[in-house]
Amino acid sequence: MSQFKAVTIAIYGGSLTLVVGLIAFALNWNVWGGGMPGYKILLFPGNLTLVYVWHPLLTEEIDFWPKLLLHSLGQFTVASFIIWLSTIMVRRLLRVRPS
Question: Is the pTM of this model over 0.90?
Answer without folding.
Answer: no
